[in-house]
Amino acid sequence: MALAEDHGDGTEATEAVSFIPLSDPDITSAELSAVEALLCSPRISNGPITDAFEKAFAAYLGRKYAVAVPSGTIGLLLALKALGIGPGQEVIASPYSFRETVHAISLVGARAVFADVDYWSGALAPAKVEERVTANTRAIIGGNPNGHPAPWLELRAIAQRHQLPLLEDSTEAIGSRYKGELVGRFGDIAVFDFAQPLALTCGEGGMVVTDDIDLAGGLRRHRAHRLDERSSIVVSSAAPHQAGMSDITAALGLAQLRRLDEILERRRLAEQLYNAHMQSFEGIKPPYVAPEATEVNWFLYLVHLGTRFTRSSRDAIVDDLRIEQVEAAAYCHPLHLQRHYFERGYRHGDFLVTEKIADRALVLPFHTHLTDDQIEFIVETIKDASINIGAGAAIY
Questions:
Q1: What's the pLDDT tens digit per position in 184-225?
Q2: What percent of the chain lies above the pLDDT cut of 90?
Q3: Does the N-terminal peptide bond of residue 197 adopt cis geometry, omega within 30 degrees of 0?
Q4: Which long-range contacts (CB under 8 A, 24 or more apart) does 335-342 make?
Q5: What angle do CA 225, 188, 238 make, to 5 degrees?
Q6: pTM value?
Q7: Of all helices (H) and strands (E), which one includes residue 192?
Q8: Which is it for strands 301-305 and 329-330: parallel, antiparallel or unpaired?
């Protein structure tokens, strides 16, 4: 399929569609100027820019402390270490995710105990979490999958009932709100990621936030030691991971944070265009939004194929889109089916809801540079592809 160009004389010329990537960062002269200014300064590492980014990010969320890290996975690893979680202990988490921050549980030597998810939102189902709590459980990690907030009040109630810390994986959800509150404000510790294709991206990097001064200190001790801390008995008691963020990354992130509202608004325009074009497609519906999710800023535009579709037919649609120069992907390969967790005893059928929705979940290009014509082309291409594999099924 190709887009047609109207020449104005009643004739049309059909031209090949240029490649439409899954993501495309929203970078302006503001970001370029910030990085250039840093590169021209006498300090491009261990300088003041990372501190400024941390303070600005904490202020944005209304949290007391923010600690910059190289990635969301490393951020969660440091959070677990700051909580004293390690070998022989258990952490409850979701097997349904695009990003694999959950690997941090294994990296600290603990065991990931998965709980199934809600069919509609893809977030942890509180009742399933409660079932998985044992005497060996040391924390609960809830996520905001693809930007959709988890049921934080219910998860918090479970954590309090069992006296467990609640960690918030917000690596896919910056700017989303649950009952009017920004995500990142619900966990004892919350983790963000800044890799592409997130709305705020600086190539790589992440941020861990908390209101607990002791946890913030623990995070920093496990992250890295500053030059002026090398003689500190307290700080040197922990072997650091040298997991700091470069000032170059921080300069880009700080510039993006200042433009975040603008970036999110432009992404919402792309969402509205997708929703409009999806209305005429019986086999696919726009992403679900729960009533308590007062604002959702999507990580990617995720749709679920109808119930007649299988994982192989979803993959066939991805292949057809690729042929038409459109990048798409499966949202999730369930963690419990990946080899690392399979070798730890998990098997197909352990989490039926996760497996069912993962088989039919498809993420489409989602960024601020998409045009109406491109989005229309993407949706029409999916329609054409689905005809070959039996579309027309009800979505839910």
A1: 999 999 999 999 999 999 989 999 999 999 999 999 999 987
A2: 79
A3: yes
A4: 335/94, 335/95, 335/96, 335/97, 335/100, 335/102, 335/112, 335/114, 336/95, 336/114, 337/95, 340/103, 340/106, 341/95, 341/112, 341/114
A5: 25
A6: 0.91
A7: strand 189-193
A8: unpaired
